[in-house]
Amino acid sequence: MKTNPVLQSPSLNLSGDSNAVTTYKRDAHNYITQMFAEQMPAIETGFFNAHMSKNIIVQPHWHTNVNELVYVISGEVVTSVFDPFTQKLMSYRLRPGQVSMFPKGWFHWIVSMKDNTHFLTIFDEPTPDIVYGSDFLRFTPKEIMNLAYCVDEQKYAEAALPIQESVILGPPPGCKQAKSSTQGKNSTHRTVNHTQGTAGQGKNIPPQGVFHQSSYGPQGYADDDYEWVKASPYHYYYPHSSSHYQP
């Protein structure tokens, strides 16, 4: 049996404080801390410690080298992951003590459904590699989006303009939700007020879509702005024929 050489060190430390290192801080109520090998070399796993308010999202991303387990301590979250084999988006609503998994390389995100939500994302390697969806969007040239997907270059450039840095907890600061009286009671537009840079300073990006609330969500969830089709307890799918954001 191979022994980890770290365990043979005379200065071995088998304890640590996951609150000591802040990975990302959006504001006082939304931040992520961590515990990985850099802090405690003896650890053979690692985790992020996430604190989030309602409707804050761990933005879409994927990991090239780890599987991930989400464990809820308080509050509620919805985890969503794209299954590349079935071509389905799988979403799970989790309460304290419940878990869901993201296989290595699968595109996923996490939405907080309540204030004061606290959860762990636990990995099977000491340090995860992360590819952020925000980086994919802001660094892909508009010409490539047009060539690959026939997306209008100017519209794509305008849509991606608010993403000025790697976003871990979204929406980005400055993003505002404005109710539209012409779109119906349950419709919401997202607009972004730019406060940095000269290109978009003082301007609002036109709404990119309408956020629809479903009339057939699980009982008790009708006011949480999420669209669900019930598949099994704690397991919900988005309607396959529609998108979360409708143009």
Describe the structure.
This protein has helices spanning 133-139, 142-149, 153-160; strands at 22-27, 30-35, 46-52, 57-63, 68-74, 77-83, 88-94, 99-102, 108-112, 117-123, 130-132, 169-170, 175-179, 188-192, 210-211, 229-232, 235-237, 245-246. Helix 2 (142-149) crosses helix 3 (153-160). Helix content is 9%, strand content 36%. It has a domain at 17-132: Jelly Rolls (Sandwich). The longest helix has 8 residues, at 142-149. Strand 1 and strand 2 (30-35) form a beta hairpin. Residues 178-223 and 227-247 have low confidence and may be disordered. Strands 4, 6, 7, 9, 11, 12, 16 and 17 form an 8-stranded antiparallel β-sheet that branches. A 6-stranded antiparallel β-sheet has the order 1-2-3-10-5-8, with no helix packed on it. It has a 4-stranded antiparallel β-sheet with strand order 13-14-15-18, with no helix packed on it. It is mainly beta. The protein has 3 helices and 18 strands.
Helix content: under 10%
Structural class: mainly beta
Radius of gyration, in Å, reads 20 Å
* CATH class membership of the domain at 17-132: Mainly Beta
Mean pLDDT: 78
Q: Estimate the strand proportion.
A: 35-45%
Per DSSP E runs of 2 or more residues, the count of β-strands stands at: 18
Low-confidence blocks of residues: 178-223, 227-247
Biggest beta sheet attributes: 8 strands, antiparallel
Instruction: Quote the CATH topology of the domain at 17-132.
Output: Jelly Rolls
The gross shape turns out to be globular
Specify the number of helices. Answer: 3
H/E element sequence: EEEEEEEEEEEHHHEEEEEEE
The CATH architecture of the domain at 17-132 can be given as: Sandwich
CATH evolutionary superfamily of the domain at 17-132: Jelly Rolls
Distance between the termini: 57 Å
